[in-house]
Structures are given as C-alpha cells and as structure tokens.
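Encode chain A's predicted structure.
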Amino acid sequence: MKSTTAGLLAVVLLVIGIIGGYFAGVSTAPAAETVTVTQTVEGAGMATTVTKTVTKTVQAPGEVQELTVYALWSGVEEENFKMALGAFSMKTGIKINYVSQPELRDVVTTQLAAGTSEADVIIAPWPTWIKDELGAAGLLEDVTDIVNKVGRDKFPSAYLDVVSENGKFYAVPFKAWAKPGFWYNKQVFDELGLKPPTTWDEFMNVLDTLKAAGITPIASGDGVGWPLSDLVEAFIIGLGGPELQLKLINHEVAWTDPQVREIFGRIQQLLKGGYFDEAREWTIQIDRLMERKVGIYFMGNWINLMLQERGYRPGIDYDVFAFPGTGGIVAGGDWAFIPKFAKNKEAARMLLEFLAGAEAQTIMVKLKGFLATNKDVPKEAYDAADRNIVDMLGTLAVLPDLDDSTPSEFQRLFWDKLKELWANPDALDSVLAELEQKASEVIG
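Encoded structure for chain A:
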C-alpha cells in the first residue's frame, strides 16, 4: 500500500474541482460507432456501476494493436484499474495486456539498461527515479505535448514539477494518495456522544472517553515499518508544524532537539498511559476498529476501499478526521510514462492522454481507493470519506513522507526504533539519540 519515494515531493496544495475531459481519436481515423458500456465492480456488501456512452473505434483487420502496461497494483486495485483500461479499449479498439509487476523498479531498470522494454506504458510512484534516473539518461519519451493537450492547469503544479526538467515532461500524473488522519467508527462515536476533535484537549477527551468505555483508544499498525512511522509523522506535523517535518527530512534540526523531544514525550505519555494498542499487523487493526476493540486508526486513504470491501459504508459506519489542529498532510502519487524502447509508441501516447484525463480518473474515483490528479474530476464522484480527504487536501500543506524521503539506511532504523519505543517507552531518549547519530551519518 505504501509507495517508496526516492526523493522529496515538493510541498503543494492539492485542489480537485469540476468535471471535464478530452480524448483524441486514432490517427488512422477508422470507422467508429457509439456504444453504451456498463461496468460493475463488486466487493463485500457493495457494488459500483459505471455507465457511460463512448465512441468505439473499429479498426480494419491487421490494424488492432495491443499495449502492455506495467504497474504495481494487484488484487482489487488491479481489477479497478482494468475497468479504466477497458473503457480505453472500448473507445479505441486497442487491447491492453496488464502486468502486475511487484519488482517493477528492478525489472524496468534492467530492461532499459539492455536497450529493450516489454512494457509500452509504465506507471510508478517514484518521480525522482522517473525524472533523475530514467529521464536524465534519455530512456524515456518526451510527453510534453500530452501534458499541454490535457492542460497543465488541470494538475497541481508539484505533480508536474517532480517529473519535468527545463520545461520537458517525462510522465503524466495519474493517481494521488494521501494519509489524511484518524479513521473512526461512527456508531461508537455517536453512542459515546463524541465528535471529531479539533484541538489537543478535545483529542484527549476523545481518548479518555473511549478508554472509559473499555475501548483501547488508538490502534498501532505493525508487520511492516511504515504504519507506526505514519502515525508518528502525524504527531510531528500536527504538533510541530509542516516545517518541522521538512527540517527533519533534511536533518536541519536534530532528533534530540527539545521541540522534537517534547513531541515524542507526548507519545511516550500516551504509551505509558495505555492509550495505544499493542502493535499488531496493520490489516488486523482495520477489523479491530470496526469490532470496537480500538477507537481510532491513523491510516492512508486506501483503507476506505478496504473497509468497503468488508461491507462498511463511508460516512455512515465510519469516517476520518485530521490530526487536531494540523497544518499539513502527507501525500504522493503515481505517474505514467513511456519507455524509449516501447514497441507501440503512438498507441501508448493515446493511453497516456486518456489516463491523464478526467474520464479515466473519474472511473477510478468511483471504484474507490483512488484520488484524482486531474482537477476536472467532480467532487460528486467521491464518496463521503474520500470527499472529506479531498477537502483536507485543498486546505492543508501537502508534505512528503518523512521515512520515504530519507536514505533507506535511516528509514530502516527509524522503523526499528519506533517498534522499540512501543515495546519500551522508557527507551525514548536512547531512541532519539540513535536516530540523531544515524541521521548525522547518512544525511549530514
């Protein structure tokens, strides 16, 4: 679920607005017909139907092309993405061979180094890799004309800036993701007379009320390192401000700094006071949240889709609130690009234009677990929970992940030391000292 980013994603303001979109036809101008396409995706207790009228290109025999697309998505995310690809195929007659590639970065790097590419289009969450490694080496197609055709003003500027150099674009933004805040069981909150807190005092009242009701207040995800780091970053941003997050990424402030120590001191007090659940595999905590075993759970927007797969209803059974008083939100995205050695570049450019447009992204938004980068996707396409996140993205500073934006050697230590802190809160000062030492060594 988590995207590993090799560099900083600039601080941006993400605003997603009203509907629109455009798609160019096939250059050979074959005959076309109008058809109605109905697509339905089902999960536990839910079904989403996307119905639209499209123009299907009927190509002459021998002209039908097939594109190979690489991305990381599998499971329900893969199935949802295939719905958007299906709409493209109905529109153009071009078949799509989607390959879920868990080792995408290594596979693509190896192929391009050998002067070949099995994929015509690749979608990846690492803009620094795309621009500074592949693009700088001349291994990607220039897609500036596609960005201009869709409209530069359709995207948040930072989603373009991170894949462009000297006015040249190496990729188009397709998907946004965010880590908005604490997800909660609405029925529990209603029964206890609780409302989403907006101040620290209100936050503590929520935790105390949950605890008094026999519910462990805050879930702690584990199994991998990032759930705990995401939670801790929320405290850093919420209590120290967006600037502190950026300064820690660049090691412009020490991990032993009094301000940092004070923030971690609050986490320590909560740990000692029994406000955090023991660290458990992160997907288990989703069920514990809805089973009333934990009260709130800090997690990314993808949990919305996972909750609906379990039959729960956004805005009715659950919702999300930002860290009280926070000024920032961690967010990132996915970008689509064409390798230099792609075999079907013309059709690949058509697919990129489609993916960058509002039509494809609206389909994805309606299928859940997806935030659009194209501002023409209507807010009405989002469910209650995702609409709440979109509103947050429009008012809060958008920040890079702290752990993802630091060298992997520091990231691994950060994860390990947070697990140690959860197991032994009295180890706080030694934890911060070790983080400071490693930051000095690998960041400078």
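The chain has 17 helices and 17 strands.
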